[in-house]
Write a structure and sequence with these properties.
single chain; mainly alpha
Length: 134
Amino acid sequence: MCTKAFDRASLVSGTRARLGGLYFLYRPWGFAKAYEMIKNYTYRFVLDALQRDTEAPIDAERPSFILGLYRNSEDLELVRDQVLNVLIAGRDTTASTLSYALSVIEHISADWCLTPQIQPPYNKEQNSARDSPP
């Protein structure tokens, strides 16, 4: 359910960003519910991470990313929003990379990929006789 809400919120947020100052005019059905679900999920994630980092830090000298954000701002909403931005950026980067890789693979000829496997073994006598002038 959370993935569907994330997809919905991402799509609507992207459209609203393109609208600029008129973003408030585009508020389709289900957006508010999806947005609240994502905010609540990310907020719980941030609280869990902060609690885990304060109770049993992995490396006492280097705080985690979330703990570092919180120490700089001491604002849970800001930390939540920053974590959500990282999630969106990571998702977009992964999607772009996979799309590019699949498009490259799609354009590679099957003959080119299979050529080494289907060629007969190299025979010096046959090739030299074929390549020599008559």
